[in-house]
Amino acid sequence: MTMITIMAILFLGGIAAWLSDRWHQDLPRWVSLLSCLLAGVVLTPMLFVQPEQMLLLDGVSSTWLEYVNYQWIPRFGIAFIFAMDGLGLLMVALTIFLGFVAVISSWDEITFRTGFFQFNLMWTLAGVVGVFISLDLFLFFFFWEIMLIPMYLLIAIWGHENKSYASMKFFLFTQASGMLLLVAILALVLANAEETGIYTFNYFMLLGHALDSDLAYLLMWGFFLAFVVKLPGFPFHPWLPDAHTQAPTAASVLLAGILLKTGAYGLIRFTVPLFPEAAVRIADFAMLLGVLGILYGALLAFAQADFKRLVAYSSVSHMGFVLLGIYAWTELSIQGAVMQMVAHGLSTAALFMIAGALQHRLHTRDMTAMGGLWQAMPRMGAITMFFIIASLGMPGLGNFVGEFLVLLGAFQVNKLMTIAATLGLVAGAVYALIAMQRVFQGEPGDLLNAKRQDLPDFGMKELLAMIPLMLGLLWLGVYPQPVFDLVDPVLASLYELTTNQTNWVGSDP
Amino acid sequence: MTTGLTGTDLLALSPFITLTGVILVLMMAIAFARHLGLTCLIAALGLLVTLANILWVAIFVDPQLVTPLIIVDPYALLFSGLIVIASFFICLLAYNYHQQRGGHQEEFTLLLLLATLGGVTLAHSAHFGSFILGLELLGISLYAMISYPTQGLLSLEAALKYLILSGVSSAFILFGIAFLFATTGTLSFAEMADANINPTAVQGGVQGGVQGSVQGSESLRLYMLIGGSMILAGVGFKLSLVPFHMWTPDVYEGAPAPTTAFLATVSKGGIFAVLLRFFVSVDGYQYQTILDGLFWVALLSIFLGNLLAVMQSNIKRLLAYSSIAHLGYLMVAFLAAAEIGGRQLAIEASLVFLIAYFTTTVGAFGVVCIMSRKLAARDTDQLPDYEGLFWNRPLLAAFFAAMLLSLAGIPLTLGFIGKFYIFAVAVDSELWALLVAVIIGSAIGLFYYLRVIFTMTKRSSVTEGIAIPKAGGWSLVAVTLILIGLGVYPAPVIEWVSAIARTIS
């Protein structure tokens, strides 16, 4: 029931926020803040479920914490299946936490139609949570598409100067690739029906069915492309810099923090387990895409003058590690990929909030006009320094754990690519530190001199969002074991499932 | 078949009788007292009674052929129900549309009901006689509805265009029917099917001079092919499929918004009902040439419809091109029925897709109706006219957005279920080229639907002061509830439609 309650809180909270606009401008924010908190409270007990309390499915102990199944469209064997395991739980927790951060980041920035804004925010969260817990492929696709609409509206209505172009590009990229996913899902279901005689979209029933290997290979591409566009992997990333740059802060936080993760999640949960053999066939290619993404993202991040674009390209680079880790498919590298997903979610959300705060105060994102801002806003400077360091992979913070594990795992599989990917860490340090230098250090720019009087430092509200993010990264960096405990059983079972069917390169010790 | 009508025949025909009765009552009412509200009330109530009657027949009367002309079966009743529901909502919207225009607006409702009767006849026809009857009843009412004197020259031009092209297409259809008749000696679909399967059996029935030229089944097939192609060309006009689509944008733009809604739904739905029934019963799918032709028609409709829609800045023209594309999607399901194995699913897909298309189209044009209540030279159909609608009339904009998202096939709406079916049959029947076209077409489609939504979210005061009338407003509420309700929980409709598809495949 936890899952349904959370979905209900988010969907209804969104509607309540919209309606509350009628009474007072400020009310919607409180409504959605409370919805996020409430959803968090409802979720918390799940985090303490012990392994022996996990569900039995078909009489066999499983890694699932919760499972519901209702009939929906019996004609096609479509059911309303929500299920949550450690991986899903981690992703849902991240979603709700970043939702909370996003609401705070929109607090002062959004003054136009706050009710509808919060509605879209909540529905995006609800859609994403739906993606993380749907284990019926039709239902999964349903949410996969639903989360796009409110996100599109967030960018199209509250975005910056070039919002029309950016929101359209975002929608077209993700939707067009989504249609490939739909075709692949349908073909999978029909191929399965031809063999077994029943239509079903049930993940558990489709899993582990040996398809004709050429067909599986084709279908795998449908899944792969949809998820890699969302990730985004090189060369499917062009939507990302525009969407991130033009989006309002809260939308950027959600986009970078959780929407990108749905792509990675899809690869781990669906693409590889459903088509393990086909995944082996493209593993090298996918890893190459990952490495190219790491290097290309870093290179372009270095060349940006727009602070938000820089963070956006750094996302391309960081998500390259995730792709590399997933397709190396060793236990270490998948663990690393999951850790990187969480850590990147936290650090990038914070960087986008900082970018939003800068734009709110300076009305520009152009780094060449900034400089010396530390003098005026020391708290903001220090916090930015923290996240910049986290982002470049300093040991002791979450991102390091993720990237290091990915590299460690991938090294067993392909040394050359791993070495190339490591260069990304160096490049990361370069662009991150240069950004820090341009914005907060150096000679005070004209902008600072002109506006010195009205540059408020981070206040209570911002700190309320920033401090949990910092603590989170620190915790992930120093003591990541709880996260591994949560996801390890899931990853191990997926790993076992896939390597039983194939000879993954990575299965060699 | 006995010549006289029996009691059960009359019961089976009762929806026709009810609808005709309503038309007569309406005619008398207008003759005695000109009152727009009263006229529309009678018509709307009459349509509801007809709908109840259709439901009653569907539940209590066994499927049967009433005279060789009319067939009463679940398939026909489904289409009749759809047509009557669409007419009901259009009637209410037309009431609001005409309210502030003055002049003699009552006859519009009368024409609407006559055209509805034509549509219902089409849905029930099992014979070329009733087909032509329905087609002309529908078409002739439409000429008057398109040119109805609510606005300026634009609608006259549209009506003239429709008159000429529709006349030409009717001529094509008649000529095609003549070929089929000459070959098979019958106008009934069922008898034609027998003749088609067993060509030698009809030699006796073949008439006069043609008999000499018919030499064996090869030349018989040729006549059937020519006749079938001519009928398809004529039907292609009415369904506005490429390359017979030229009239669509101009007529959509020129006609009053309620007429456009009617033209886009009832007219196309009724004709598609006959086309599908005819094709399935005579197994037109055995002619590879026709299938090849339809393949290109579908492909071009999808591409041209979507590409040209991108360039429009007029909502009605945009919806016109988008409807060309949607009929193209529908033809994919139509073609998927070619193989016996996939036929049932394909028919089911066309029916579900049409239900979605009806709902969405009535809703979308309904918004245009409500936006265009002022007497003006043209409807409020320019894209900039909709700026800021989201903020000034949030509910109206939300309805419109829901319709557009449904056209784009986004989940939570019925349009998604329709699109899902099209994908499913295309994969099932392995129509890969068409599937790729549908994917590309949908991606292009997103672009222009989103542009309209984006326009509505602009911060502007253009749309201030638009009032939402009661009748039209509640119609839109109902249509939107159907759209979203069935989009979220389509199981009942799917079960029902798949049972119907089983009966005719």
Largest Cβ-defined interface: A-B, 34 and 31 residues
Number of strands of chain B: 2
Structural class computed from helices and strand pairing of chain B: mainly alpha
First-last Cα distance of chain A: 41 Å
Q: Approximately how much beta-strand content do the residues of chain B carry?
A: under 5%
Strands in their spatial order, largest beta sheet of chain A: 1-2
Radius of gyration of chain A: 22 Å
Q: Per DSSP, what share of the residues of chain A sits in E-state strands of 2 or more residues? A: under 5%
Morphology of chain B: globular
Q: H/E series of chain A, N to C?
A: HHEEEEHHHHHHHHHHHHHHHHHHH
Roughly what is the average pLDDT of chain B, rounded to an integer? 89
Note the overall shape of chain A.
globular
Figure out the total of helices of chain B: 20
The helix tally of chain A amounts to 21
In round numbers, the mean pLDDT of chain A is 88
Structural account:
The complex is a heterodimer of chains A (509) and B (505). Chain A is mainly α and 509 residues long. Chain A has a domain at 282-509. In chain A, 74% of the residues lie in helices and 4% in strands. Chain A has 21 helices and 4 strands. Chain A has helices spanning 2-20, 27-47, 86-105, 114-133, 137-146, 148-158, 163-196, 203-206, 213-230, 239-246, 249-274, 276-302, 307-328, 331-362, 373-376, 378-391, 398-411, 415-440, 446-451, 460-478, 481-501; strands spanning 56-57, 60-61, 64-73, 78-85. In chain A, the strands form 2 sheets. Chain A has a two-stranded antiparallel sheet. Chain A has a two-stranded antiparallel ribbon with strand order 3-4. The two termini of chain A are 41 Å apart. Residues 505-509 of chain A have low confidence and may be disordered. Chain B is mainly α. Helices cover 77% and strands 1% of the residues of chain B. Chain B is built from 20 helices and 2 strands. In chain B, strands 1-2 form a two-stranded antiparallel sheet. In chain B, a hairpin with a 3-residue loop joins strand 1 and strand 2. In chain B, helix 2 (36-60) packs parallel to helix 4, helix 4 packs parallel to helix 11 and helix 11 runs antiparallel to helix 14. The model of chain B is unreliable at 200-215 (pLDDT under 50). Chain A binds chain B through residues 71-76, 112-113, 116, 141-143, 145-146, 148-149, 152-153, 156-157, 164, 167-168, 171-172, 175-176, 179-180, 182-183, 186-187, 190, and chain B through 390-391, 394, 405, 410-412, 416, 420, 423-424, 427-428, 435, 439, 442-443, 446-447, 450-451, 453-454, 457, 459, 489-491, 494-495, 498.
